[in-house]
Specification:
The structure is a single chain. The protein has eleven helices and ten strands. Helix 2 packs across helix 6 and helix 2 crosses helix 7. It has a four-stranded parallel β-sheet, with helices on both faces. Strands 5-6 form a two-stranded parallel sheet. About 45% of the residues are buried. The chain is about 45% helix and about 15% strand. With about 300 residues, the chain is of the alpha/beta class. Bound molecules: zinc ion (ZN).
């Protein structure tokens, strides 16, 4: 009796001691950090089980205004590799990124692999490129090579996996882009007018054939001026625009007033500079993922303008 009890205890101890070894292969090898959800999602897909991803900005956070906290600085300094959008999207994090890079962290702007001639340079952004690249899913697919490169650099053993995953992710994003073109195409051209809070949708407009009008400039730093509001009201009445849209990361007050004054309805909430919570379902779409966010935005826009 006693020996069998002891051997059972020993067996249990052995299971407890050795079990972690069996799961070791699945423990993440790389600690990555990403600023916005749209980047974190792609890094997760490319990295698979080898990569643990820390996301700095959660749902509803405006990256133009976001100031990193002391905790962010600690998290980022512990990451092996950091991915951010670049093109001045994360304006208040720039100093921290250069400090981290100087201290030997690998820091990558994911937009560096997007061909420069594709960037838009809206007049409102005074000589800078428009940072909202994720709205053109075909362009967003071109950020994948930077993510593959960054992960491979800090984890050369995983390179083959990252390259394989990267190809799949890129193909999926291209298929999503084709779906966007087809869905936008179901709306007659003269109805493809998108009025929303800030000019985040220039790339969206170019890729999917929409005329885009924003109440604020490209960055959300400046408040909507009253003159802009009354101009926008006239434009909406003139063009008989049926619906205008609020954004999850921008205060909806101004756009709601424009809706009231112009007689257009608020066509729904778009996710622009931040995704939803993980698992946050809007109809069939999980807006906590990049794909879900893209499908939700396109369906919301097309259905409201039909
Ligand atoms: Zn923005």
């Amino acid at each position: 009796m006693k020996t069998s009890f002891i051997s059972r205890v020993l067996l249990l101890a052995a299971i407890v001691l050795f079990a972690p070894r069996f799961s070791q292969a699945e423990e993440p090898k790389v600690k990555a950090a990403a600023t916005i959800g749209m980047i974190a999602d792609i890094v997760r897909q490319v990295g698979g089980d080898r990569v643990q991803v820390e996301q700095v900005m959660g749902p509803g956070i405006d990256p133009h205004l976001y100031k990193p906290t002391a905790t962010d600085a600690v998290h980022l300094s512990q990451a092996d590799v950091i991915f951010y959008n670049g093109l001045m999207l994360e304006g208040r994090m720039a100093d921290l990124f250069s400090r981290l890079a100087r201290n030997g962290r690998k820091v990558y702007a994911v937009t560096e692999s997007v061909p420069e001639e594709k960037f838009l340079e809206p007049a409102e952004f005074e000589g800078h490129y428009d940072p909202h690249v994720w709205f053109d899913t075909g362009m967003w697919a071109q950020t994948v090579p930077t993510i593959v490169k960054g992960l491979s650099e800090v984890d050369p053993e995983g390179k083959a996996l990252y390259e394989e995953n990267g190809k799949k992710v890129q193909a999926n994003l291209e298929a999503l882009d084709a779906w966007c073109k087809e869905t936008a195409g179901s709306l007659p051209e003269q109805k493809r007018i998108l009025v929303t809070s800030h000019d985040a949708y220039n790339y969206f407009g170019r890729a999917y054939g929409f005329k885009v009008v924003g109440l604020q400039g490209v960055s959300t730093v400046s408040e909507a001026a009253l003159a802009d509001m009354s101009q926008l009201v006239d434009f909406i009445k003139d063009q008989q625009v049926k619906a205008i849209f609020v954004e999850s990361s921008v205060n909806p007050a101004a756009i709601k007033r424009v809706a009231e004054d112009s007689g257009a309805k608020v066509g729904g909430e778009l996710f622009s500079d931040a995704m939803g919570n993980p698992g946050e379902m809007h109809g069939p779409y999980d807006t906590g993922t990049y794909e879900g966010m893209v499908r939700h935005n396109m369906s919301t826009i097309v259905n409201a303008l039909k």
